[in-house]
Design brief:
With 397 residues, the protein is α+β, with helices and mostly antiparallel strands. The chain has twelve helices and five strands. The chain has a five-stranded mixed sheet. β1, α11 and β2 form a beta-alpha-beta unit.
């Protein structure tokens, strides 16, 4: 079964947070729980002190030393886990841990040898890999020498534990560092991609408009000089200017189509303005409910609305226009329906124009349908798209 990418992303986010200083209470609790699990190895020293195996002075010194050891360990791991640091501060804290572990083990007995596990964990979690690779065996060797000095025989399992846990923590630290670096690399790539897209847009617009605007400027100057004595030639220059500007407009529209995707809510607002400006009484709904509608499907309806309103303004001669956006349940599943109806004469030809043909193809790409034609008192265009990503409109019945 394939893992949900969002689950993987959340897991990576939690792992990355373990390598950073807590910024809020949930992160503090999560990191405290993760680190606190390892404090189980303190059970042996605590039991040794609680059993009364030492004099009063030794017991007090043992508790003070244990509290100091745990405090230094937690401060070191909380601040530096997953973030390799060569600063003298981190190295000094590890030296303090090693000295405390050695002193407490020498003075209070073999029950305190487990403190070297924490020294190994600190080395693996906070030091750079090259440094951790040799400090962990050194920690194990120091513990082994102290254990032999104390006459401890059964110690090889503890040596193996110190080595395994230390090197395991180097793996965890490396994983955290890799996750942080990947996040930074992803942000950098996204920024570079955005910059490249902006440069491409600027370059394309320059290439498209530079020549056309220069030509328009030149012909405008010629028309201005010809106008007093040769109005017919000036008129020809003006006609050329119109042709060049129209072609430039077409080129810009084709270029911008690749950068900007229309939004249905914005097109509805634009439709209200365009129809009102053309003297058409318009009924246009407010912002529609597009919850669960795929972005491509909403964009296809926005193109349909733009084409329909353009036809109403330019060709219909209508006085009224009604726009509706409705959700319907069909045999093929839920659909989002756009209906644009006017009381005009519609197009002049019987065959569908290029705009409706292209619109039909655009809707078919997202599984939608288009119906357009004369009705009793005008012209109606109905476009339907699936209202969810898993629906298939089919016939749109």
């Amino acid at each position: 079964m394939t893992e949900d990418p969002r689950t993987h992303e959340a897991r990576a986010e939690r792992l990355m947070r373990l390598g950073q200083s807590p910024s809020n209470r949930p992160e503090l609790l999560r990191k405290s729980l993760w680190i606190g699990v390892w404090l189980v190895f303190l059970s042996s020293p605590v039991h040794d002190l609680a059993a009364g195996n030492h004099a009063a002075a030794g017991t007090v010194a043992g508790w003070l030393g244990l509290v100091a050891f745990v405090g230094v360990y937690l401060m070191l791991v909380f601040r530096n886990m997953g973030r390799p640091s060569s600063r003298p501060f981190a190295g000094g804290l590890i030296v303090v841990l090693a000295v405390l572990a050695a002193a407490l083990s020498f003075s209070l007995g073999s029950a305190w040898l487990g403190l070297f596990v924490y020294v190994s964990v600190a080395c693996g979690a906070t030091l750079p890999l090259r440094t951790a690779y040799w400090t962990i065996p050194v920690t194990a060797a120091a513990m082994l020498l102290i254990a032999l000095r104390l006459g401890e025989d059964d110690l090889w399992s503890l040596v193996v534990l110190v080595l395994l846990i230390g090197y395991a923590m180097t793996g965890v630290g490396q994983l955290i560092r890799t996750t942080i670096e990947l996040r930074k690399a992803r942000a950098t790539v996204a920024q570079l991609a955005a910059n490249e897209e902006r440069l491409r847009l600027a370059r394309d617009l320059h290439d498209l408009l530079g020549h056309s605007l220069s030509l328009i400027t030149l012909k405008s100057e010629l028309a201005g000089r010809m106008l007093p004595g040769h109005p017919d030639k000036a008129a020809q220059q003006v006609a050329d200017i119109e042709q060049v500007s129209r072609q430039a407009l077409v080129d810009v529209r084709e270029a911008v189509t690749g950068y900007r995707r229309p939004r249905l809510a914005a097109e509805l607002a634009g439709a209200q303005v365009a129809l009102t400006a053309a003297g058409v009484t318009a009924q246009v709904p407010a912002e529609p409910d597009l919850a669960g509608v795929p972005e491509d499907n909403g964009s296809a309806l926005a193109w349909a609305l733009r084409e329909a309103v353009t036809n109403v303004v330019r060709h219909s001669g209508a006085e009224r226009c009604t726009v509706e956006v409705l959700r319907r349940q069909t045999l093929d599943g839920p659909v989002l329906e756009l209906c644009v109806e006017d009381n005009g004469s519609g197009g002049s030809g019987r065959a569908p124009g290029n705009g409706l043909t292209g619109l039909t193809e655009r809707l078919e790409k997202v599984g939608g349908t288009l119906e357009a034609g004369r009705v009793k008192h005008g012209f109606r265009l109905v476009a339907r798209v699936p209202a969810d990503s898993g629906a298939d409109v089919g016939s749109g019945a």
